[in-house]
Design a protein that fits this description.
By secondary structure, this protein is of the alpha/beta class. Helix content is about 40%, strand content about 20%. It has a six-stranded parallel β-sheet, with helices on both faces. It has a three-stranded antiparallel β-sheet with strand order 7-10-11, covered by helices on one side. β8 and β9 form a beta hairpin. The two termini are about 25 Å apart. The mean pLDDT is about 95.
């Protein structure tokens, strides 16, 4: 990855709900000093850039403009939020074919600019589109990061915190697998101040864990049915990931990454904890899963493979 000593630039591709929420959060958190918005609807991108710039006196100093793929050349990170959105009644996997085709064009155009940074993928189905970005870009796997289960994990931590009446930032728990219906909670590693969550409940209270997980898994459906789309939570997760990269934090986040033997999986992007630094994914963290958790993870991987197979049979 290139080294920009004085300037950090993020290119946001897609100025829909997620892209603009991410841009707004980025403006407020003083993470970068250049941000370019790219969209097929250039007027929409220009309008968003103007609106964000008018908030500059109240936020952090940065340069924000509506640009094109050529502006990706000097970007540290390209964040892709463009693509077809999940509609009421649709699963994330229903979006596979149309979004893979959209991504082929986007990633090709970014790479033709001379881009030499990192990709963050947020569009659903994020695991499959992260794999597509890796394939189409030709970049090393550590430089293509999907948002994965970063939001699902946040939702889990929030709901556990709500149940036990503690700050969710002091809850340590993970969602692994597909960012979707086959994801799984790793209850064997869920703790509050090093205390296992499962040991903080009586036998009669344990069913609450399944209720918490169901609310995590189905959260997007509930939100989409009520307001049409989800964007604030994932935008915050994307900013958290951006910070971890640009500030070389070596933070552990549950992102979508390429498996190369970890958890007994290979040649598939799927959600798992990983150490994130300035170069991207430094290392996948392999949790010691129970037999049931491992079976669930492999079921999730099989589901993703079946969904992506028609799109990648000819992609080598």
């Amino acid at each position: 990855m290139k080294n920009q000593r004085y300037t950090t630039r993020v290119a946001v591709i897609g100025t829909g709900f997620v892209g603009t929420s991410y841009a707004f959060a980025l403006l407020n958190q003083e993470v970068v000093n250049e941000m370019v918005l790219i969209d097929l609807n250039k007027e929409k991108a220009e309008g968003e850039a103007r609106d964000l710039n008018h908030g500059m006196p109240f936020g952090s100093a940065m340069r924000i403009w509506a640009g094109d793929y050529e502006d990706c050349r000097d970007a540290d990170i390209v964040v892709i939020t463009a693509g077809a959105n999940q509609k009421p009644g649709e699963t994330r996997l229903d979006l596979v074919e149309k979004n893979v085709n959209i991504f082929r064009g986007i990633v090709t155009a970014v790479m033709e600019s001379g881009f030499d940074g990192l990709f963050i993928v947020a569009t659903n189905p994020v695991d499959i589109l992260s794999y597509a970005t890796w394939k189409f870009s030709g970049l090393p796997m550590e430089r293509v990061i999907g948002s994965g289960t970063i939001l699902d994990t946040a939702r889990l931590r929030y709901l556990i915190g709500e149940h036990f009446q503690v700050d969710s930032r002091n809850v340590h728990a993970y969602i692994l697998g597909e960012h979707g219906d086959t994801e799984l909670p790793v209850w064997s590693h869920a703790t509050i101040s090093s205390r296992p969550v499962t040991q903080m409940l009586s036998e009669e209270e344990l069913p609450v864990l399944e209720e918490i997980f169901t609310n995590v898994r189905d959260a997007a459906y509930h939100i989409i049915n009520r307001k049409g789309a989800t964007y604030y939570g994932i935008a915050m997760g994307l900013v958290r990931l951006t910070k971890a990269i640009l500030r070389n934090e070596r933070s552990i986040l549950t992102i979508s990454t390429l498996m190369q033997g970890e958890y007994g999986l290979d040649d598939i992007y799927i959600g798992a904890p990983a150490i994130i630094d300035r170069n991207g994914i430094r290392e996948i963290v392999e949790l010691d899963l129970t037999e049931t958790e491992m079976e669930q993870l492999h079921h999730s991987a099989r589901t993703l493979r079946e969904a992506m197979k028609p799109c990648f049979e000819t992609v080598k």
